[in-house]
């Protein structure tokens, strides 16, 4: 029986089919508008999410991160995931964000983990630890040092997935109407200062209060508080604190590299296909780094304006005061860790990362800053 060579006809047939298919695709793409192309690409499911924030709508700096994030997600997903951003009080009050996203009333939130210290003391490690890691180091710990995994673990019981949502860099110590010349001057000081820094102030004899950003100006103006910290020159200038406070103190010992957060309802996240999940994560990373870049570019110009045009008195906290606060902070961390096993576990991991990164940064970042300053002095 003669063997038939049947390969060439099959290959030719397949090639012909390929040419026809490709030609049809090109022809249909050329004739279709963007909306039709979108349908052609997937016929895929689209999602509409709500994102609630602890900031007033379109708040400078901090509030631009969720807006930027939502826009990126819409662009990257070709409109398959649309996220509507709501300012504080539009759907839920600022301090109701965690609960709303946990319960699924909104799919996402933007704020800061230390706002939730009342229900979750260990959450404070994921915003800022006084005298702790700076922005660069926090990002390193979270994304390549095991920090994010710990953060996810402590939010898991609340059906929440956390992601870094912005870095402010080193903040300012805050706005004061009286000078701080010694530790005695901290006694009786009523100051808006959240997180662990607030606890440190309490132990130093002051009274820390947590007030959402949108209510701060009035609180300071009416004397409900004597002092407030917020972020840094760029944000603080927009707020107008220079109109109601005389002294602007540095450095921001209490928030050396604060990280903001996105929180995602876990059930909602799991309903997304893999590519949209990757887009959410990538857009959050983008917003996180972009905030730091924005502050780096704008803080210095804003400070110059505050001092040169508005006559703000820039002051450094005395070493004696900083050293006292640092001692109190160490005691506070140790004592809280002794009472709260979860806090202790995160504290241990945080300290292990610090023990690795700080010695190296002494001979790299810090040594370079010193070298650069020497150059300038000559
Ligand atoms: Ca702050």
From TrEMBL:
This is ABC transporter substrate-binding protein. The keyword Signal applies. The keyword Secreted does not apply. NCBIfam families: TRAP_S1. InterPro entries: DctP_fam, SBP_TakP-like, TRAP_DctP_sf. Keywords: Signal. Pfam families: DctP. It comes from the Bacteria. It comes from Microbulbifer flavimaris.
């Amino acid at each position: 029986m003669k063997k038939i060579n049947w390969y060439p006809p099959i290959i030719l047939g397949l090639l012909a089919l390929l040419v026809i298919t490709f030609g049809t695709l090109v022809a249909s793409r050329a004739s279709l508008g963007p909306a039709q192309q979108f349908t052609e690409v997937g016929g895929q499911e689209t999602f509409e999410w709500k994102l609630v924030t602890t900031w007033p709508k379109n708040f400078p700096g901090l509030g631009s991160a969720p807006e930027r994030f939502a826009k990126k997600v819409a662009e990257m997903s070709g409109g398959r995931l649309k996220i509507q951003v709501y300012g504080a009080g539009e759907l839920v009050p600022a301090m109701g964000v965690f609960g709303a996203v946990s319960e699924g009333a909104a799919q996402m939130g933007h704020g800061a983990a230390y706002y939730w210290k009342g229900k979750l003391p260990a959450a404070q490690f994921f915003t800022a630890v006084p005298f702790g890691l700076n922005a660069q180091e926090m990002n390193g710990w979270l994304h390549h040092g095991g920090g994010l995994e710990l953060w996810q673990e402590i939010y898991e019981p609340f059906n929440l997935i956390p992601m870094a949502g912005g870095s402010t860099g080193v903040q300012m110590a805050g706005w004061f109407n009286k000078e701080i010349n010694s530790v005695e001057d901290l006694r009786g000081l009523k100051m808006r200062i959240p997180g662990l820094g607030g606890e440190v102030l309490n132990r130093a004899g002051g009274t820390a209060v947590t007030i959402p950003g949108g209510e701060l100006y009035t609180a300071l103006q009416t004397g409900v508080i004597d002092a407030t910290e917020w972020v840094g020159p760029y944000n603080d200038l927009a707020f107008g604190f220079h109109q109601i406070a005389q002294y602007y103190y540095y450095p921001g010992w209490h928030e050396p590299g604060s990280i903001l957060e996105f929180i995602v309802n876990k059930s909602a996240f799991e309903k997304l296909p893999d590519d949209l999940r990757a887009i959410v994560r990538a857009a959050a990373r983008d917003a996180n780094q972009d905030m730091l870049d924005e502050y780096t570019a704008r803080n210095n110009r804003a400070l110059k304006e505050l001092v040169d045009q508005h006559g703000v008195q820039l002051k450094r906290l005395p070493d004696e005061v900083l050293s006292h606060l640092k001692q109190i902070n160490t005691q506070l961390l140790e004592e809280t860790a002794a009472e709260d096993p979860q806090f202790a576990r995160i504290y241990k991991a945080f300290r292990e990362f610090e023990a690795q990164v700080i010695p190296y940064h002494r001979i790299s970042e810090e040594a370079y800053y010193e070298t650069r300053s020497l150059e300038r002095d000559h």
